[in-house]
Amino acid sequence: CHTHQATPIESVVKKIESHHWCRCFSFFIYFIYLFDLSMVYKIISISIYIAGSTGKGTTLDMSSDVDLVIFFSCFSSFQDQVEKREHVIKEIEKNLNRCIQTIAFKVDISPPRKKGTRSLQLHIQAKKKKELVEVDLLPAYDALGQITFSYVPPTKIYTELIEANGQPGEFNTSFTELQRNFVKRCPAKLKDLLRLVKHWYKEIKSFKLPPKFALELLTIYAWEEGTGKEQFNTAEGFCTVMKLITQYQHLCLYWTKYYNLDNSQVGLHVKGKLKESRPVIIDPADPTANVAKANMGAWDLLAQKASDCLTQPCCMKDEQPIEPWNVQVVCICHFLSNRQLKKKIHNF
């Protein structure tokens, strides 16, 4: 939290803005693979989406990575994606190698580090700019099709996801739009808080940290439970998130916006995820993924940094700690039946 000592939290927020120029790379990638791959390799793309922080509108001005999810028609199921993904990645790489000399960007392609990789990594730099952007191209099965902002998937999609028996979160790219919508629905000031938390996270400068998405969801949870209002005190919200991080060993969070726990198959699967060791933060768009899953040393480090931050001037007012919101840590105890959950609430 040392970066905030001499600067009020509200002024720090104003300095954190999203990259606009990163978005142009999506079109650059799109035209290359859309034309050449569909004509030469008969691999037809359906659509492309900017995932991660850039797609959600919560990226930092100093961020340097973009995730591009590409939905291909050659994937007809989750299992199909597993079987054909490596071939598609090789063809994209081959095509890009043919095209990179003719475009106004410097592009370096990082070969897949291991067999079965899920993405192709590029480093892209506009020839007249110094900024270097890391782009991950992620081929995916289009499980949802064209959706609206209020779209809720039919239960069948989630039963098929569970039956695919992939690794936890292996197919989360298929639910990129839902992840994006879940965050984009947040009011502007909450997005500012999300950027602030991510700025704090980035300042820790350690590779051994929990996933950023876990911090995003934890911040949204803090706001939902603490106020839910469009206008709120940013410092109070920030301190609430810091306090929750210090309580990570009790965190067990989930949302039912997109999947229905009344379905026995989905409900039992989520029940199994909720029994995992804490912290548990289940992806609101993908019930197979505990996005908080990380080495305990990573959470220990993050909790220590959060505890230190709570003693810094940014979390003080008139030499007294800023009071966090009254947020509770939710611990899921057990199912009353296959169709119901019983919740036990512990005071924050």
From TrEMBL:
Keywords: Antiviral defense, Immunity, Innate immunity, Membrane, RNA-binding, Transmembrane, Transmembrane helix. The keyword Membrane applies. SUPFAM superfamilies: Nucleotidyltransferase, PAP/OAS1 substrate-binding domain. InterPro entries: 2-5-oligoAdlate_synth_1_dom2/C, NT_2-5OAS_ClassI-CCAase, NT_sf, Polymerase_NTP_transf_dom. GO terms for biological process: defense response to virus; innate immune response; negative regulation of viral genome replication. Residues 45-105 form the Polymerase nucleotidyl transferase domain. GO terms for cellular component: cytosol; membrane; nucleoplasm. One of its GO terms (molecular function) is ATP binding. The chain crosses the membrane at residues 24-44. Residues 153-329 form the 2'-5'-oligoadenylate synthetase domain. Pfam families: NTP_transf_2, OAS1_C. PANTHER family: 2'-5'-OLIGOADENYLATE SYNTHASE-LIKE PROTEIN 2, 2-5 OLIGOADENYLATE SYNTHETASE. Belongs to the 2-5A synthase family. This is 2'-5' oligoadenylate synthase. It comes from Pseudonaja textilis. The gene is LOC113454199.
